[in-house]
Amino acid sequence: MESIRIAAAGAALMVAVAACGGGGSSSGNTKISFLTHWGPEQVKALEAAATAFEKDNPGISVDIRAVPFGNLLSTLRTQGASPSGPTIASIYDLWLPELVRDGLAAPMPQDAAGKLTAGWPANLVEGVTKQGSPRGYPNEVDLYALNYNKKLFAQAGIAEPPKTWDELEAAAAKLSGNGKQGFGVITSWPAGSVHPWLSLVNSNGGQLLDGNTPKLDDPKTLAAAQLYAKLVISGSTKPEMSNANANTTGPYLDNFVNGKTGMIIMANWWQSALKDAMGDKYQDVGVAPIPVGPQGSKSAPVSYSWLTIVNGKADQPRQQAAWKFLDYLNGSASGMGGSSAIGDILSSMGILPSSNADLKAHAAADSDPFLAGYIKELPNAVPFPSVLGGEAMSQAVQKHLESVVFGKETPEAAMSAAQKEASDILTKAGA
Fold first, then answer.
1. Is the pTM of this model over 0.85?
2. What confidence score (pLDDT) does residue 425 get?
3. Domain span including residue 189
4. Both 122 and 220 in a single domain?
5. Residue 364: which pLDDT band, with cuts at 50, 70 and 90?
6. Is the dihedral of CA 123, 127, 130, 136 positive or negative?
7. In this model, does residue 384 exceed pLDDT 70?
8. What confidence tens digit (pLDDT) does each residue in 274-309 have?
9. What is the structure's pLDDT at 99?
10. Bridge partners of residue 310, in order along the sequence
11. Which helix (H) or strand (E) holds 302?
12. In 3-state terms, what secondary structure has residue 88?
């Protein structure tokens, strides 16, 4: 699902190292492997960390394997039960419930779980906890904020970014016209469509799920779909400018980069794409909290994470060695300036690390106000629900939300249909 940030980070992902032969222990050596979707530069950094770890932990060898994002989940599923299968994997958190169900995401040992609880934001720990146990380190966190073009705001006489939905509508109207749209939305990509909209829902006091029960026809949720319809009808949002292509770039990005979109809700990972595409004009990009709806009390952006898990089907010696390596990777001694090795790798891609220590280390070193705006909002973030059937549910919501944007359904009809489909999907997934 989230080919998203990977493509934006510029990773033309190919297999970077050969798969190691034979798992388990031989001649006193425990061999483990780390499956990732990262590109060559990040693989090299992981290999360097593995080499340093091996020097301090004789008897454990670490092999880094990289595959294209599209093959990541299938590789873990097809090879997971094999003795030579991946011991550690980097995964999108929406996959976690199914991997736990299938025994491919082992519970954290008690000592690792204690370090997680002490060193990571509570909302991120909650997001990786399934069946009463944390299942891995939420290394990367992505969340949403309102991105806006400060130059266009000044030209339109708008003094500051909107704090409420009413202010959002008013600002969008002033920014529209002459081929420009005031507020951009994203289509043709599930997370790009659903996450920004759900950030508005959350900021109106609504929610996507109450436990496992969809709340798509709740008035607080419906109101965000009605807001989209109003923006389209008024001309402040132009559907033809919304498309995302397979690489998660495309018109929606181009229109913001080229000053044709005044505002858009997007995640922090696209910083590198903005820098590359905008050049000196990147300094015109502002970051602000999600505007609060009439029934909301505070900004509450959607967040999601990528986490590293240990394969529950690996034998115990390899699981123990894997948790030891992950403990090393996430420890401040493995990186630079108080950061962990993982924190340094993520920051090299313009992506937020998630541990408290890494956030502190890189917030102090990074003077870019773009990332600073996201770091400030992290405590208010609401993790996207990670449940069995969650990906199919997200795709169903996307379909009906895009029908609203393109005028094929009224908000009321769209949310009613989405409610029924989401309920059916979650019921079947939990059966």
1. no
2. 97
3. 142-302+386-430
4. no
5. low
6. negative
7. yes
8. 999 999 999 999 999 999 999 999 999 999 889 999
9. 95
10. 88
11. strand 302-310
12. strand
Residue 5 contacts residue 271 (beta carbons within 8 Å): no
The position carrying tokens 């146990």 is: 133
| Contact by Cβ (8 Å): 123, 381 | yes
Clarify whether residues 377 and 425 are in a common domain.
Answer: no
Q: Are residues 329 and 183 in the same domain?
A: no
Q: Report pLDDT digits (tens) over 324-349.
A: 999 999 998 888 888 999 999 988 87
The total domain count for the chain is 2
- Please, which residues have CB within 8 angstroms of residue 31's CB and are 6 or more apart in sequence? 20, 22, 23, 24, 25, 61, 63, 318
Residue whose entry in the numeric block shows the structure tokens 């060898």: 61
Backbone torsions φ then ψ of 61, nearest 5 degrees: -120, 140
Q: Is residue 154 domain-shared with residue 210, that is, in the same domain?
A: yes
Q: What is the DSSP letter of 162?
A: -
Q: Tokens standing for 215?
A: 């709340």
Give the per-residue SS3 of 343-412. HHHHHHCCCCECCHHHHHHHHHHCCCHHHHHHHHHHHHCEECCCCCCHHHHHHHHHHHHHHHHCCCCCHH
Pair 355, 411 in one domain: no
As a whole number of angstroms, the distance between CA 318 and CA 310 comes to: 9
DSSP state of 15: -
Q: Which of 381, 323, 343 is nearest to 60 (CA)?
A: 323
Q: First CA to last CA across the chain, in angstroms?
A: 23
User: Three-state SS for 160?
Assistant: coil
Q: Beta-carbon neighbour count of residue 338 at 10 Å? A: 15
Block residue for tokens 């502190």: 360
Task: Give 8-27 as a DSSP string.
Answer: HTT------SPPPS--EEET
Residue 32 forms beta bridges with which residues?
62
Q: What is the mean pLDDT of residues 97-107?
A: 95
Average of per-residue pLDDT values in the chain: 90
Read off the pLDDT of residues 108-144 as tens digits, 9 standing for 90 and up: 999 999 999 999 988 889 889 999 999 999 988 889 9
80: Cβ contacts below 8 Å, ≥ 6 apart: 86, 104, 311, 313
pLDDT tens digits for range 145-193: 999 999 999 999 999 999 999 999 999 999 999 999 999 999 999 899 9
- CATH code of 38's domain: 3.40.190.10
Decide: helix, strand or coil at residue 184: strand
Q: Report the alpha-carbon angle 95-101-102, nearest 5.
A: 90
Token code pair at residue 229: 């319809």
Q: Which helix (H) or strand (E) holds 139?
A: strand 137-149
Within 203-304, where are the H helices? 219-234, 251-257, 271-278
For residue 305, give the H/E element and its range.
Answer: strand 302-310
